[in-house]
Design a protein that fits this description.
alpha/beta; 32% strand; 5-stranded mixed β-barrel; fumarase; globular
């Protein structure tokens, strides 16, 4: 399979997202949004239910599951010392509503999302971008500055950070906007290999 690389500018269009395929490599330039908070995702669902206003317009945005170590200056500005992905599967219950409700074009982190989330992505035109686990140095190198903080009253890694990035990546398309998932493919392959190995072991034992 030929490796395809894409240089994309945020906010993303549906056309650019639909063109991505599982396994493609993506570099992002523009503004992303990031949070590692489960309570933050609960609060975002509350926004969809009319409990409060969203801190940012996320239409066409990329909302990533990223945690960070931050330094806060005296003027209240925030500098990200390093940033690393958190496990996206924690947010499986939230994402099927948040993806269409917020108008997201991309989400991501590490570990992928489930089949229900993949269906929501296919319907809405959204992709899951996988970050390199433990790749804080590579991820942080793409950060230029924090341009806004949503819900500053929350602890730092629960806040929504709006971040200007330049060639953030390499990111891998783990789930494309057609519902294809590298995580499902990997699981299926592992199960097939397991069955073959068990059959070989049974044959050796019986022989």
């Amino acid at each position: 399979m030929t490796l395809r690389e894409h240089e994309l500018t945020l906010p993303l269009t549906e056309e650019s997202v639909r063109a991505l395929k599982v396994g493609d490599i993506v570099y992002l330039t523009g503004e992303i949004f990031a949070t590692a908070g489960m309570p933050t995702h609960d609060r975002l669902l509350g926004c969809l239910d009319g409990v409060e206003e969203l801190p940012f317009d996320l239409q066409g945005a990329a909302l990533f599951h990223l945690g960070s170590l931050n330094e806060e200056a005296e003027d209240g500005s925030l500098r990200i010392v390093y940033m690393n992905p958190t496990t996206s599967t924690r947010f499986n219950p939230h994402m099927p509503r948040l993806i269409p409700g917020l108008g997201l074009r991309a989400t991501g982190g590490k570990g992928g999302l489930n089949a229900e989330c993949a269906r929501a992505m296919a319907e809405a035109g959204c992709v899951y971008l996988a970050f390199l686990g433990g790749g804080a140095e590579i991820i942080t190198a793409g950060i230029r500055k924090v341009t806004g903080i949503g819900w500053p009253e929350m602890i730092s890694h629960y806040r929504i950070a709006r971040i200007e990035v330049e060639r953030l990546g390499p990111l891998t398309v783990g789930i494309d906007a057609h519902g294809n998932s590298i995580y499902d493919e990997t699981t299926d392959a592992a199960l097939r290999n397991r069955d073959a190995i068990l059959a070989e072991m049974r044959a050796a034992r019986e022989g």
